[in-house]
Amino acid sequence: MQLKHVLLSASLLLIIAPFTLLARPTQVEIRYPAGTQAHDPQRDYFLSVLRLAAEQALPDYDITLKPIDVTMYQARQLMNIQSGVIDISWTMTTEAREQRFAPIRVPLMRGLLGYRVGIIKRANQPFFDLINNTEQLKTLRTLQGHDWPDTQILMAHQFNVGTTSNYQRIHQLLLEDKYHFFPRGVLEAYKEVALLDDVRYSVDTRHLLVYPTAVYFFTRHEDSDVHRGVTLGLQRAIADGSFQTLFLSYQQHKQNLEKVNPKKRVVHCLTNPLAPASLNNTPAPYWYWNDNPDFNVCPRS
């Protein structure tokens, strides 16, 4: 009788074991950039989103996040993914980038990186107040980072764009009147000026550049578990509202968005020749303007 009980127990274990194994989460380690991000005031926010995605991926994926101390410009971020130094990073999407790397198509900034206001020399604000259309704005000397997709977008629209890789000097160029206009995302510009702690700088109150774009997490194409785990976590966070809550819980976001006042600005609607066609298929709730009509200021394709 005892032997029969042992055999029955063993048989049950053999039956249950496969289901137990199936129920175990997939173990995934994700190395992410934790070093100083050049000109990335949103770094802490992106890391919070990544942590939220890891939490939400359970019980299907047990994601361990491992910081890697690297200092990177945008182009360097992707090179470090390609070479295997890190497994994931965040940057603006382009058709070329989506061919080389695997995008996780959730706009981390809800489309607002394409809403650009200018950091300027404060004394030049009266001059900006006299500009009434895009053609006039194009005549100003506009400054951008040398490896930013934004640079190519503005050049495609015949803006008078100059570039630099020396971010430590980029604001000084405005004071020297070598450049007039330094477009930055609406979630970045105001904090950036505050950090400068110099009354000679301000954010232009007159103009708003708008073009369609998104910041995505990117992984290597072959890292399917990394891609699937983060994608699942983000989708769940959007479905239960925790992603949107996190987005607005950042005081910097809320304060900056209150200062923009798109309806009171001259809006310059631009196309984005670098954008992948898939951008048009993004679900409407992913975009900030879907539930904030004051930001719905340009036609959507």
Describe this structure as you would to a colleague.
This protein has 301 residues and is α/β, with parallel strands linked by helices. The chain is 39% helix and 20% strand. It is built from twelve helices and twelve strands. Strands 5, 8, 9, 10 and 12 form a five-stranded mixed sheet that branches. A three-stranded antiparallel sheet has the order 3-11-4, sandwiched between helices. The N terminus is likely disordered.
Task: Kindly list the characteristics that best describe this protein.
301 residues, 20% strand, disordered N terminus
**What share of residues is helical?**
25-40%
**Global Rg:** 23 Å
Question: How do the SSEs run, as a string of H and E?
Answer: HEHEHEHEEHHEHEHEHEEEHHHE
Uncertain parts: 3-21
Instruction: Characterize the biggest β-sheet.
Output: 5 strands, mixed
The average pLDDT is 90
What share of residues are in beta strands?
Answer: 15-25%
Task: Tell me the distance between the termini.
Answer: 74 Å
**How many extended strands?**
12
Structural class: alpha/beta
Shape: globular
Number of helices: 12
Write the layout of secondary structure elements.
Layout: H1 2-23, E1 26-33, H2 43-57, E2 61-68, H3 74-82, E3 89-92, H4 95-100, E4 102-104, E5 115-121, H5 125-129, H6 134-138, E6 141-145, H7 149-156, E7 160-164, H8 172-175, E8 182-185, H9 189-196, E9 201-203, E10 207-210, E11 215-219, H10 224-239, H11 242-249, H12 251-260, E12 266-269
Helix pairs in contact: 2-10, 2-11
Summarize this, please?
Helix content is 39%, strand content 20%. By secondary structure, the protein is an alpha/beta fold. It contains twelve helices and twelve strands.
